[in-house]
Amino acid sequence: MEDCIFCKIADGRIPAALVYENDLTLAFEDIHPMAPVHVIVIPKKHIPRLLDLGREDRQIWDALVDAVQEVSRIKGVDEKGFRMVINCNDEGGQVVYHLHVHVLGGRKLDDELG
Length: 114
Ligand code: AMP
Ligand code: ZN
Known about the structure:
This protein is of the alpha+beta class. It has one domain: HIT family, subunit A (2-Layer Sandwich), CATH 3.30.428. It has helices at 5-10, 58-74, and strands spanning 18-21, 25-29, 37-43, 82-85, 101-105. It has a five-stranded antiparallel sheet with strand order 1-2-3-5-4, covered by helices on one side. Bound molecules: adenosine monophosphate and zinc ion.
């Protein structure tokens, strides 16, 4: 997708601080972190929203979950705990329309949701 910021990160057109990569996903530091650990995990494929993730994309979902687990270990929050958040559509707080998972941790998270 020409104008999608996360597609641009996925194909190297704009830089990001990479944390982890596997065949189907990429993880990088959020540019405006809301917690000491705030990593964004994306599928390399342009899927706009969680609602657009089809049954044929189950491998991608599995890879996203694998990546979140790896990121939690790499960032050292696996034992203490972390939060995985997906925002969907306007009232869900979605700003970037390329499916992504927020991995938040490094402090006690209260009721705010990413
Ligand atoms: P959302 O509100 O769920 O769409 O979240 C989008 C997230 O992407 C926000 O937390 C932004 O800070 C983050 N973000 C936007 N642009 C970049 C970028 N170029 N590199 C890293 N994170 C970004
Ligand atoms: Zn995209």
